[in-house]
Amino acid sequence: MKTIAKCAENLKQELIEWRRYFHQYPELSFEESNTSDYIVRVLKSFGITDIETNIAEHGIVATISNGPGRVIALRADMDALPIQEKTNLKYASKNLNVMHACGHDAHMSMLLGASKLLNEEMKDDNLKGTIKFIFQPAEESANDEGLTGAPYFIKNGILDEVDAIISVHVCPWRKVGEIQVNEGPSMANIDNFELTISGKGGHGGYPHQTVDPIWISSFVLQGIYSLISRKIDPLHVGTISVGELKAEGSKNVIPEKVTIGGTIRSYKSTIRSQLIKELEAVAKICEAFGGTFDLTIQRGEPALYNDAAITRLMKKNAKRLYPDMKIIEEPFGMGGEDFGHMTAVVPGSMFFLGSAFEEKEFQLHTPQFQLNEKALPIGVAVLTACACDLINTEVRREADDN
């Protein structure tokens, strides 16, 4: 294990070079053509030639094999965010209003590092079986069909023969040398909603002649905000947040319609269904006040479910590699992660890698986001060690009480 850590540390300058290239040339979801070309060039420089491209537009699967055996997959996301970078770094984004503000540049670099080390292990006949390196586009945004990148890999059969899958996400609220893990649901189911309340508009001086959708929406909003405290078991995780409230009126004009938009977050599928059902019941308040409504639910990513056995294996390997490593065991939060599509069909797990600076913490999805590159070799080492362990270990999915 110490050898893996040392080999990963020896890759540090390459990891930084790869990461900074990706950071300078970020691309949005389903537009990662230059990113894809660069990854393929680097993989081929390792001697990896079994490379499938153009999955979900620009996705990549590189495969290495050494005889029969288990099939393991490692995954990284590729896309950036529509954010104008404000870091003043020498390697800041050169693409206007596009930035790697969620660490996907680091994820790709760490997966390249792991692919290099694991390919060398197979060449030396130290591993038997097959390893797939999945570079997945479009984790951040869905297309017109409502799909992000992960479902396309599943539809294409990429995971059909895979026995286990692992991934890493940078964690700017943890120090370098720390990782955060969690067994079971670890990031949220994501559903967005749009509720249009229709009434009868009119003159602001004669409200009695209208069916005021703004007035109606005040009761609907109270109902939405009370759902979690009065309808959901306090021991379960779930929330509804309103982020949009739109009406096309003016100071003396009562509008015809009001639109309320927001997001629904949960960990368990039962709570996910209950929240949608309760939201539909709240929307019916409109009818009691003479209005009508139209409620649209856009189903998003499923909750990220981390397999317990694989998560324990991650902890074991992290401690073997770095005996002083601090391991924090708690869920990752109410954000979404489309890796959840993959762990829903294949036993898998993601760990969060501490990447904070000592003097300052940067938040994900912000124009100022930065990460500590000292974390990169640690991520490579943990991914590599886990892959070596998994390819020799049968994983049986444990019962899911979701």
Automatic annotation (TrEMBL):
Q: Provide the residue positions that the database annotates as binding Mn(2+).
A: 102, 104, 140, 169, 365
Question: Could you tell me which residue ranges the Peptidase M20 dimerisation domain spans?
Answer: 189-283
Any one GO BP annotation for this protein: diaminopimelate biosynthetic process
Per its UniProt record, what InterPro entries does this chain match?
Amidohydrolase, Bact_exopeptidase_dim_dom, Peptidase_M20, Peptidase_M20_dimer
Q: Does the keyword Ribosomal protein apply?
A: no
UniProt enzyme class:
hydrolase
Gene3D superfamilies to which the protein is assigned, alphabetical: 3.30.70.360, Zn peptidases
Q: Give the EC number(s) listed in the UniProt record.
A: 3.5.1.47
Under the heading SUPFAM superfamilies, the entry gives: Bacterial exopeptidase dimerisation domain (SSF55031), Zn-dependent exopeptidases (SSF53187)
Which controlled-vocabulary keywords does the entry list? Hydrolase, Manganese, Metal-binding
Name the cofactor(s).
Mn(2+)
Co-factor remark = The Mn(2+) ion enhances activity.
**Alphabetized Pfam families for the sequence:** M20_dimer, Peptidase_M20
A GO molecular function annotation here is: metal ion binding
Q: What is this protein called?
A: Amidohydrolase
